[in-house]
Structures are given as structure tokens and as C-alpha cells.
Design brief:
four-stranded mixed beta sheet, about 290 residues, alpha+beta, about 45% helix
Length: about 290
């Protein structure tokens, strides 16, 4: 089966110690079964440090250190497992983040998540979101469903790439075609009901306006919307799922637009991604309003 990715995917590489929002801080890091077996038999000076840092249970994971730091993150922000044992000793979640995968009618697709600041920078600055590239092969076969989410995605991308339309005009065309009425969406009620990693973000989200789109950031918002559609709509196997995912994408983009200025857009986009789309519960809360 083909492995496909947006053209901008090839520009991504982890910036490690240069990252201001390390994914090695604040997150519980689960260890997959294959890597756990590797750690159990690993030899070398650092192997005992790894084994002693693991908390066993239904899902083994690293015991977080002070300030919720991964125990293998050194004072310079670099991974001690990589430094001592090599990248081949990373568990799946550390090796793959911020990548995500979707199985579609076209094949398996990979992307990079907006919650990563380097991925966010690339997504916001790239106009190649509609250019898909085959970057390899992977195991498995395509299981096609009758509903073609990729065709719907391409329809929307065609609207977003139309140079004769303003961003406002593009949104109106999408709303009209799919009968979407965001003016009926209870932004304030929903923002109050979400779970937050950081309560300060709840205050930030509270300024969201139903109708506010900052058109000084039109091109960047277009790319952000395209990202959400790529990530959340591509696997839909029926129209209702696609519709709910499209509405979710528009809601997230609206929140980002409402709380951002041009010089804070990237950070606000990263926060919205981290708080909403990386929370299965928050994602389900919003999507359920459109099902």
C-alpha cells in the first residue's frame, strides 16, 4: 500500500533542544510492547537507567521527573536515550510524534500535528497542503469504503486555492455547499465545558467570537483549515462523519482566528491543537454537536 504525505511533510525534522514546548514535558510517555522487550534485554551503561525509569502496569510508561519532565530529558533538552543508545532505542510514541496516520481510499496518509511548534511553523508557512506525494510503501491493503472522503477533501481544497476568492468568500462557499451554520454554534457554552491541560487557556479561549475572522491572517488561516481537514476528514467512511469532522475543523479554525494576532498566530494554533484536537474527549464534545 502507498504511503502518502503532503509535500510540506518532507520539510519536518525535530528541533530537539531548540523547542520551547518540548513534547518530553507534561505528557505521560507509554512504552509499546516491542520496545519494552528491547529494554528488558538491553545492555550497556545506560540500560539500567532506562529499566529503573519504567513504571509497570497495564501500559508500561516512564515515570515523570520533577516538573513532569521525561526522566531521560537532560538539562539541555536532549534525549539521553538517543545520546547513549541511539534513536533505534526510542519507543514508538517518541519516534513517531508529532506524526499521525490515516487510512483512506487513496492509501495510508501521514501528516504532522499542529501541537508541535516546528510542525505548526511549517504548516502555517506552506502553501503546498494540496500537493500529495508518495513517500514510500507500507504493509496492508486499501479497504475502500463507498463514501469518498478524498474527493470531498479535494473539492474543498479547490475552493481554498481559488485565487479569485477572498478567504471570506471561500468560507461562505464551504458553508453554503455543506449547509453549515456556525452562527448557531454555542461557542461560549462549549468552551466552558472542555477539559483543559492549562486553565489559563480556558480564559484565552473565552474571547472567541462566533463571527470573527481576522482577514489579516487569511492565508495562514486557510492553511490551518486545510490541515484540520486533512487530519480529521480524510478517514470518514460516510457523509455524516465527514460533515461532523468538517464542522470540527471550521470551529477550531474560528477559535484560532478569534484569539490570535499575526505575531501570536502560531502559538495560539499550537495551543488550540494541544487542548482540543489532542484530547479525544474535547474532540468528541465538539463533533457530537454536528451529528
Amino acid at each position: 500500500m502507498k504511503l502518502l504525505a503532503p509535500k510540506y511533510y518532507l520539510d519536518f525534522s525535530c528541533i530537539a533542544d531548540k523547542c520551547k514546548h518540548s513534547c518530553c514535558i507534561g505528557w505521560e510517555i507509554d512504552i509499546d510492547e516491542k520496545t519494552m522487550k528491547k529494554y528488558s534485554s538491553l545492555e550497556g551503561e545506560y540500560s539500567e537507567n532506562i529499566r529503573n525509569s519504567i513504571e509497570m502496569g497495564e501500559t508500561p510508561h516512564f515515570k515523570l521527573a520533577q516538573n513532569e519532565r521525561c526522566p531521560h530529558l537532560n538539562e539541555k533538552g536532549l534525549c539521553k536515550i538517543i545520546l547513549n543508545c541511539g534513536e533505534n532505542c526510542l519507543c514508538d510514541i517518541c519516534r513517531e510524534h508529532p506524526r499521525f496516520y490515516n487510512f483512506t481510499n487513496a492509501g495510508k496518509e501521514v501528516g504532522i500535528g499542529l501541537s508541535c511548534e516546528e510542525a505548526c511553523r511549517i504548516i502555517i508557512n506552506s502553501n503546498s497542503y494540496d500537493q500529495m506525494m508518495e513517500i514510500g510503501e507500507c504493509d496492508g491493503e486499501i479497504e475502500k469504503c463507498e463514501f469518498d472522503a478524498i474527493a470531498e477533501r479535494e473539492r474543498i481544497y479547490g475552493i481554498l486555492k481559488d485565487i479569485n476568492l477572498t478567504f471570506e468568500g471561500k468560507l461562505e462557499m464551504i458553508y453554503d455547499y455543506y449547509d453549515i451554520y456556525l452562527n448557531e454554534f454555542p461557542f461560549y457554552k462549549i468552551i466552558d465545558s472542555l477539559e483543559y491541560l492549562n486553565e489559563d487557556h480556558k480564559k484565552l479561549f473565552s474571547i472567541t467570537s462566533k463571527y470573527f475572522i481576522n482577514f489579516d491572517m487569511a492565508k495562514q488561516l486557510e492553511r490551518i483549515l486545510a490541515y484540520f481537514i486533512y487530519r480529521h476528514c480524510s478517514e470518514a467512511c460516510d457523509y455524516d462523519d465527514f460533515y461532523a469532522s468538517l464542522c470540527f475543523s471550521l470551529v477550531c479554525t474560528s477559535i484560532i482566528s478569534s484569539i490570535s494576532l499575526p505575531d501570536t498566530l502560531a502559538e495560539c494554533a499550537r495551543i488550540v491543537s494541544e487542548e482540543i484536537e489532542y484530547s479525544e474527549k474535547n474532540t468528541d464534545i465538539i463533533k457530537s454537536l454536528f451529528i
